[in-house]
């Protein structure tokens, strides 16, 4: 029998988790042969709601779901986990930028980093979703340096999915015609949805969509501002699409990438494309099914370089704000 995968989900009674957990337990991420043990982590006021979610999971009678642990205790919650999906945190409201959440959310990720280093399985991989996700990931990782850099990710996949859909709709083609869409930098309004390298039906997107102004004036701002547009329309931040992006992110790490495509993930910079080492930066990445690598050697035209510099500087500024959450303090 296949060994069960043990997955911790923080914020397990929240909106994103409510769209995620049922798909995880159904096998959408690790496949129909892999049993799953869920470690559902919440804060005390949400434990009653979490009991309700767990009852619903029970009531689905998922054959793959072997065990559930419901806890507020990080040592218990992260014990032996192979994956940690760090979602639990406060979402922004209309009028806020994600970075405005650093004060309230940043402190969550320091003890979580420590507990992961002390209790998780030796092969643990961590995906940070709670915003601002790149810098929250930095806080967790800096407090858990025992976990190798290549096992940490922050989520930019929702931006990539948004970008692919915008391109497919504008070109009037099926989604799987759209390939090699990169998201550079921060999961914020400075992110760079990259149309320069995107391909549609095997050709450069800029050849297929013969409307140069559309890319800068519509495509980039639409993707950068999509989260805010959803908050305005729904009165709450994106949840089902975020959960879907969590599933896509994990799958893109554990499965080899398609030969003619790449994925979007925030990873720890090793200095690629001149990004300072240690920052969590959205890059185009490829996986061999075990390990994720940044796609290197892409030409970076000047307008793209200028935009990458803006999002890089924002991440440097965010890092400067969280000094007291780093381990030397
Ligand atoms: N990276 C991305 O692409 C996206 C990130 N997000 C972010 O994901 C986060 C969660 O969003 P939602 O699920 O909609 O929020 P939500 O408010 O519905 O749920 C958050 C849950 O986290 C729990 N929580 C708070 N502090 C916690 C802690 N210290 N430990 C464990 N659980 C804790 C809360 O009790 C709540 O149940 C937000 O920060 C949001 O901005 C949302 C969409 C996309
Ligand atoms: O915009 C937000 O606050 C939630 C989020 O990260 C997204 O939808 O991309």
UniProtKB/TrEMBL annotation:
GO terms for biological process: malate metabolic process; tricarboxylic acid cycle. The gene is mdh. This is Malate dehydrogenase. It is an enzyme of class 1 (oxidoreductase). Residues 5-147 form the Lactate/malate dehydrogenase N-terminal domain. HAMAP family: Malate_dehydrog_2. NCBIfam families: MalateDH-SF1, PRK05442.1. Substrate binds at residues 92, 98, 131, 162. Residues 156-316 form the Lactate/malate dehydrogenase C-terminal domain. PROSITE patterns: MDH (PS00068).
């Amino acid at each position: 029998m296949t060994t069960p995968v043990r997955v911790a989900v923080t914020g397990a009674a929240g909106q994103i988790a409510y769209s995620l957990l049922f798909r995880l337990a159904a096998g959408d991420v690790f496949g129909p042969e892999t049993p799953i043990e869920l470690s559902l982590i919440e804060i005390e006021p949400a434990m009653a709601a979490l009991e309700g979610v767990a009852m619903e999971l029970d009531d689905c009678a998922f054959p793959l779901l072997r065990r559930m642990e419901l806890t507020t205790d990080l040592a218990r919650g992260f014990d032996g986990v192979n994956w940690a999906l760090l979602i639990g945190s406060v979402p922004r409201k209309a009028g806020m930028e994600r970075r405005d959440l650093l004060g309230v959310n940043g402190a969550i990720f320091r003890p979580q980093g420590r507990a992961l280093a002390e209790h998780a399985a030796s092969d643990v991989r961590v995906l940070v979703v709670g915003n601002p996700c790149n810098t929250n990931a930095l806080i967790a990782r800096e407090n858990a340096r025992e976990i190798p850099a290549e096992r940490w990710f922050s989520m930019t996949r929702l931006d990539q999915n948004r970008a692919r859909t915008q391109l497919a709709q504008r070109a009037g083609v099926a989604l799987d015609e759209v390939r090699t869409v990169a998201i550079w930098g921060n999961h914020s309004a400075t992110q760079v949805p990259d149309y320069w390298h995107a391909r549609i039906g095997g050709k450069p997107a800029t050849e297929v969509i013969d409307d140069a102004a559309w890319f800068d004036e519509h495509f980039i701002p639409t993707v950068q501002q999509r989260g805010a547009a959803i908050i305005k329309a729904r009165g709450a931040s994106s949840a089902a699409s975020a959960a879907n992006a969590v599933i896509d992110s994990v799958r893109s790490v554990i499965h080899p990438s398609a030969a003619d495509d790449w994925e979007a993930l925030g990873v720890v910079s090793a200095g690629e494309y001149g990004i300072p080492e240690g920052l969590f930066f959205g890059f185009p990445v490829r996986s061999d099914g075990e390990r994720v690598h940044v796609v290197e050697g892409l030409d970076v035209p000047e307008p793209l370089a200028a935009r990458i510099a803006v999002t890089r500087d924002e991440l440097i500024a965010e890092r400067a704000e969280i000094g007291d959450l780093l381990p030397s303090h």
